[in-house]
Design a protein that fits this description.
By secondary structure, this protein is of the alpha/beta class. The protein contains 12 helices and 13 strands.
């Protein structure tokens, strides 16, 4: 009997969470048992009340656990609250699946993830096929960020690097599971064995790069990360944050994006690597700007990278 726990972190989008609950049933998802843990992550306003009343109105109280946090520690911290609550149970689920409030599963999506996990025992983290509301594919399987990728963006150097280095998106198979470095936390199955090995996110990431870092830790522990093409879901990105694919819809990227970028590189590669990578990224942005190819509005800027990534790293400012 396969037991799946869905973990949802809410911040200011209680209505979206409630809209999603009818689709997250064992019957619709084709699993033996399914329960839901919702972490209300310190939203301002009445989200806690709206969630509590909405769960009761839907008659979903037996399969939904609502945990209310008084503070918003970010996506990693919110999920860790849920992970800790799940770990305290006497009976542990076979799999925990992270689901964003703005994620909508097709019927059977969880079954597809579970079947793939059971067929690939070395897999610790599995992600589905993300689609936009109009059905067009979204990015959902990625390679780790590296210095080489930033160097490939320097003018005239792009074609000198292989595709898997210069492109963040992995070329996925339409039929078979595809190995990758990391998958989106919007639809992310974590097996019991993986949770035992790496039980928590690094909650010093406020938002962004936390699932990248977690997948790196899973791979270091000997697990594979897989993209599952028939586990389809619609992802309406940026509902809570206003950011889609590392691009702010209105205004500049927030400071926490740069802070997470810096933390990822310093933690996983060291200060020197982070400094050189940051300076290379700045140089590529500046040279492309000079050549009449400025970065898209709402993406990383030279000033932001220097102020929040490079200089604090040079100074050894605490992460």
């Amino acid at each position: 009997m396969t037991h799946v726990t869905v973990l949802i972190v809410n911040y200011k989008v209680a209505d979206l969470v409630l809209d999603n609950l009818p689709n997250l049933t064992a019957e619709k998802q084709g699993v033996d048992a399914l329960d839901i843990v919702i972490v209300e992550n310190g939203s301002p306003g009445d989200d806690a009340r709206i969630l509590r009343e909405g769960i009761e109105a839907q008659g979903a109280g037996e399969r939904c656990t609502l945990i209310v946090s008084e503070t918003n520690g970010g996506f990693a911290s919110g999920n860790n609250i849920g992970f800790r609550a799940i770990a305290e149970r006497e009976a542990q689920p076979d799999h925990v699946v992270l689901v964003n409030p703005d994620t909508r599963f097709y019927d059977g999506t969880l079954r597809a993830l579970v079947d793939t996990a059971e067929a690939h025992p070395k897999a610790g983290g599995l992600g589905g096929r993300a689609l936009a509301e109009d059905g067009t594919p979204r990015g959902c399987a990625y390679t780790f960020p590296t210095f080489a990728r930033e160097a490939s963006r320097l003018p005239l150097l792009y074609n000198l690097f292989p595709e898997h280095v210069r492109n963040v998106n992995v070329q996925v198979d339409d039929t078979n599971p595809t190995p990758c470095d990391w998958v989106s936390g919007s639809c992310f199955l974590i097996t019991r064995a993986a949770r035992d090995a790496v039980p928590l996110f690094d909650d010093d990431y406020f938002l962004y790069f936390e699932e990248t870092d977690y997948c790196r830790r899973l791979k270091e522990a000997g697990f594979e990360i897989l993209h599952v093409p028939n586990a389809r879901y619609v992802h309406i990105k940026g509902v809570s944050t206003g950011i889609k694919d590392a691009q702010a819809e209105v205004g500049p990227l927030p400071d926490y994006w740069y802070n997470s970028w810096r933390r990822y590189f310093v933690k996983n590669h060291g200060r020197g690597y982070a400094i050189v990578t940051g300076l290379t990224k700045i140089l590529a942005l500046w040279l492309n700007r000079v050549r009449g190819r400025p970065p898209a509005p709402g993406t990383a800027t030279e000033a932001g990278l220097m102020r929040l990534c490079v200089m604090p790293t040079i100074k050894g400012t605490k992460l």
